[in-house]
Write a structure and sequence with these properties.
This protein is of the alpha/beta class. The protein has helices at residues 34-41, 51-63, 74-84, 100-109, 127-136, 148-163; strands spanning 3-7, 10-14, 43-47, 67-71, 88-92, 117-122, 140-143. The longest helix has 16 residues, at 148-163.
Length: 164
């Protein structure tokens, strides 16, 4: 089944073959309860100050069957991550309070943060920006506007791993 929707300049299409696997294992998010663990793994946190971009990502996640949680600043995003313990996090680099690089470094210092997939989504796409993203601990760096097919692969990979 496929769905199309246009929001915030993105044309969203849910469908296709998932090719990216999730990185969490039972208990890595601080729980041994399989039902709670599964619901958290389906959770995806979006930290993006541009409300149109955040909404477009939220719709894409929802259309694909994930549970999207949105924050519009780095510190509030970290609070959501600590509460939800998602399997996947999309982080803008240019946030109003702390930058996305620092958000990622903080996530990686948390006991549950090493197993999360953390993707930078930024208007800054120079080689230096990508190098800094790698050094901060991001798993990947996507330049805005991101390729929707790549976003879909990350989301589908998480959801496929969750259903196994």
């Amino acid at each position: 089944m496929s769905k199309e929707q246009k929001i915030g300049g993105f044309e969203l299409f849910a469908g296709g073959e998932p090719t990216v696997g999730g990185g969490l294992s039972t208990g890595s998010n601080g729980t041994d309860d399989p039902a709670l663990f599964a619901s958290r793994r389906r959770s995806i946190v979006i930290i993006e100050d541009n409300r149109d971009t955040a909404k477009a990502l939220q719709v894409l996640v929802s259309v694909m069957g994930g549970e999207a949680h949105v924050a519009h600043a780095g510190l509030s995003g970290l609070s959501v991550i600590r509460e939800v313990r998602p399997g996947l996090v999309f982080v803008d680099i240019g946030l109003p309070d702390i930058d996305g690089y620092e958000v990622c470094r903080i996530i990686r210092r948390e006991p549950f943060g090493t197993a999360m997939t953390v993707i930078a989504i930024s208007g800054w796409g120079a080689q230096e920006d990508k190098r800094r993203a790698t050094e901060a601990g991001f798993d990947a760096h996507l330049t805005k506007p991101p390729d929707v097919a790549k976003l879909q692969r990350y989301i589908a990979g998480l959801l496929l791993a969750t259903s196994e």
